[in-house]
Design a protein that fits this description.
Jelly Rolls; nine-stranded antiparallel β-sheet; 344 residues; alpha+beta
């Protein structure tokens, strides 16, 4: 094969690879929804399917304008033109049940390899226990009953809740306020297969294999505290009634800052990342049981949220896994070079 033809093959391969890299399976910036696009019962909201553990005790709101809600939340990092509308998820917003969760699924099925990203903001009301006067309230893990977790998974069956007693596929959970001990059955950072919490000894967690307080599932682990420094309560929230404490969130937690969450599936291996850093990697056949994706919120306690313990999602994007395009490029290039080298 001539050098000219070799470069032609490389050019075609690169073109195909670039198309694969740029293809988008699904995206939503949540800017096109109206006031009626919310739901508190099982079924659908907008084009998304919705599963709630207790009807009426959870809520999903599409097109929620977090910029005008009085919480001091800035535009998400991947928004265009400074827009401030997203998806708000409230789990156990009535504070009447011990455990509550909801799951929302995009209207797509992705049977192959893919990467999904979205912007995440987690909010909380803060500490509720004050020290002796004149000491102000402190976070101390976010206070009693102020915890919410963001859940995300693949291979979802479309019907189960995602919590410590129910689940499907491979999924992950990140607690907003870092309010649970490493010895808890619902720690701050979780990887689960179905409802089964993966132990730290599996090696699934990038933070290590140590269990317990300060271990690989606890926000106080140095891996998390380095990735997620404590953040100040937005000033607007210190002026609300009741006020959130004018204090920093716990280091290693996800509060009061936009994060970029990523989930990728390559075969039966699923990787969960936040802000580009791997949090956990799980390999299990259930990851490919279905092509359904799941994003949700989970309250493992009884929220006293005063309307401000919630999960925000913005700028959801699903694309084909780039590794497929890379393999195609390398394979075609190798074919051209091999033919050129063996010509007589």
């Amino acid at each position: 094969m001539s050098l000219k033809n070799t470069f032609l093959i490389l050019g075609v391969a690169l073109s195909v690879a670039q198309c694969a890299f740029s293809a988008t399976i699904f995206s939503d910036d949540f800017d096109g929804y109206g006031a009626g696009d919310s739901a508190t019962t099982n079924g659908t909201v907008g084009t998304y399917s919705l599963v709630m553990q207790t009807n009426g005790n959870n809520k999903a709101t599409l097109g929620y304008n977090y910029g005008t809600a009085g919480f001091g939340i800035p535009s998400a990092p991947h928004s265009t033109g400074g827009t401030t509308t997203g998806l708000r998820l409230d789990a156990n917003n009535g504070g009447t049940a011990a455990i509550n969760s909801l799951v929302i699924s995009p209207p797509i099925s992705v049977p192959g390899n893919f990467s999904m990203t979205y912007d995440l903001w987690m909010n909380s009301i803060g500490g509720v226990t004050a020290g002796p006067p004149p000491a102000p309230p402190a976070w101390g893990g976010g206070g009693t009953s102020s915890s919410k977790a963001n859940t995300v998974g693949v291979g979802y069956n479309g019907t189960t809740f995602l919590n410590n007693t129910s689940g499907s596929g491979v999924w992950f959970s990140g607690m907003g306020d870092g309010g649970f001990a490493g010895t808890s059955g619902t720690p701050d950072y979780e990887a689960r297969i179905g409802s089964t919490l993966q132990a730290t000894t599996t090696g699934d967690y990038a933070a290590g294999t140590t269990a317990g307080n300060g271990g690989a599932q606890d926000n106080s682990n140095p891996y998390y505290t380095a990735l997620f420094p404590s953040q100040p309560t937005p000033t607007a929230q210190t002026l609300l009634v009741p006020p959130s404490p004018a204090d920093n969130s716990d280091a290693g937690s996800l509060l009061f800052k936009w994060h970029t969450v990523g989930v990728s599936r390559n075969g039966t291996t699923v990787t969960w990342s936040i802000d580009g850093a791997t949090i956990a990697t799980v390999t299990d056949a259930s990851a490919t049981a279905t092509g359904a994706l799941a994003i949700g919120a989970w309250d493992p306690g009884t929220s006293q949220d005063a309307g401000r313990v919630f999960v925000l999602i913005d700028n959801l994007v699903v694309v084909p896994e780039p590794a497929s395009a890379t393999l195609l490029l390398v394979g075609l290039a190798g074919l051209g070079l091999r033919r050129r080298g063996t010509r007589r």
